[in-house]
Design goal:
This protein has about 260 residues and is α/β, with parallel strands linked by helices. It has one domain: 3-Layer(aba) Sandwich (Rossmann fold). The protein is built from 8 helices and 11 strands. The strands form 3 sheets. The protein has a 7-stranded mixed β-sheet, covered by helices on one side. Helix 1 packs parallel to helix 3 and helix 6 packs parallel to helix 8. The radius of gyration is 17 Å and the shape is globular. It starts with 6 loop residues before the first strand and ends with a strand.
Length: about 260
C-alpha cells in the first residue's frame, strides 16, 4: 500500500450505499512520541480481508454486532458497517482515535440532529482500548451488552495486529480477545494475563466468531507467544483461504 496517499479507497459491489465504497484518510504527518506508527496507514492485509468479507457478508456481518481491535484507519470495520452490520465498535489506543473518528465522519458525516432534538449517529462508534486494560474491557462489555443478548459482540475483527510486539503485548492481545468474546471480564472477574489459560476459561457463546488476519512477514517465531496463548484460550483455528498466499486468515470460536 502506498503510504504517500492521503486517502485510500476500497470499492466492492457488495457494499451498501450509492457509491459502493469506503474511503479512509491515512496519517501522513510526522509521528509523535505518543503515537503508534503502525496505526497510521492501510496495510495490505486489510484490503485482502475486506475483499474476503465482502464475498461472505451475509454469513459473517449482516445484522451482527461487530468489534474491531487495533482498527488503525478503521477501513475493515467501516467495510463491515457497509455490509449491513447492526453496529460496529472501532477500538485502538487513545492516541489513534482522532484518525478513526475522522474516517467514520468521512464515510457517514457528523452526527445529525433531528427536529425533535435527538441525535442520529452512524452505526460505527470509536472507543479506546489498550490490550489488557481491565477497565476499558469492562466499559466495552457494559456499553455493548443488554439483557436480551448473551454476548456484547457477535463478530470480532483483528487484522495486522502483530508487528514486533513483545511477549507481554502478545499475551495481552490474546487475553483481551477472549475476554471480549466471552464477556468473562464482566461476568466472572478478571481473566487476563498469565492466568488466562485452558484451566481458567470462561463459558461463552459458540456463535461468536473471531476473524484474525495475519500477514506473514518472516517473523512467525517472534509472534509464537501469541499463537500459543490464543490456542490455549480458543482451541485450534479454522484456516480460510484467500487470494493472498501471504495472508493467514484464521477463525477462532469459543469451545
Amino acid at each position: 500500500m502506498d503510504r504517500t496517499l492521503p486517502c485510500v479507497t476500497f470499492a466492492h459491489p457488495a457494499l451498501l450505499g450509492d457509491n459502493k465504497q469506503v474511503v479512509v484518510r491515512q496519517n501522513l504527518a510526522a509521528q509523535s512520541a505518543t503515537e503508534e506508527g503502525t496505526a497510521r496507514w492501510v496495510w495490505p492485509g486489510a484490503l485482502a480481508t475486506a475483499n474476503w468479507l465482502c464475498e461472505r457478508g451475509v454469513e459473517w456481518i449482516l445484522g451482527k454486532h461487530v468489534v474491531e481491535l487495533g482498527a488503525g484507519t478503521g477501513l475493515l470495520g467501516l467495510v463491515a458497517s457497509r455490509l449491513g452490520a447492526k453496529s460496529v465498535t472501532l477500538t485502538d489506543l487513545p492516541s489513534e482515535l482522532p484518525l478513526l473518528q475522522l474516517n467514520v465522519e468521512k464515510n457517514y458525516g457528523p452526527p445529525k440532529k433531528q427536529n425533535d432534538g435527538t441525535t442520529v449517529a452512524s452505526p460505527c462508534s470509536v472507543k479506546p482500548l489498550r490490550w489488557g486494560d481491565v477497565s476499558a474491557i469492562e466499559t466495552l462489555l457494559v456499553e455493548n451488552t443488554n439483557s436480551n443478548e448473551q454476548n456484547a459482540f457477535d463478530v470480532m475483527l483483528c487484522c495486522d495486529l502483530l508487528y514486533h510486539n513483545d511477549d507481554d503485548a502478545q499475551r495481552a492481545l490474546a487475553a483481551t480477545m477472549r475476554a471480549l468474546v466471552t464477556g468473562c471480564e464482566r461476568k466472572q472477574g478478571v481473566c487476563l494475563g498469565d492466568t488466562a489459560t485452558t484451566q481458567t476459561r470462561c463459558p461463552g457463546s459458540k456463535q461468536t466468531r473471531v476473524l484474525f488476519a495475519y500477514q506473514f512477514r518472516e517473523n512467525v517465531l517472534g509472534d509464537c507467544v501469541f499463537f500459543e496463548t490464543i490456542t490455549e484460550l480458543f482451541g485450534d483455528a479454522i484456516r480460510h483461504e484467500t487470494s493472498d498466499e501471504d495472508l493467514w486468515l484464521m477463525e477462532y470460536r469459543v469451545e
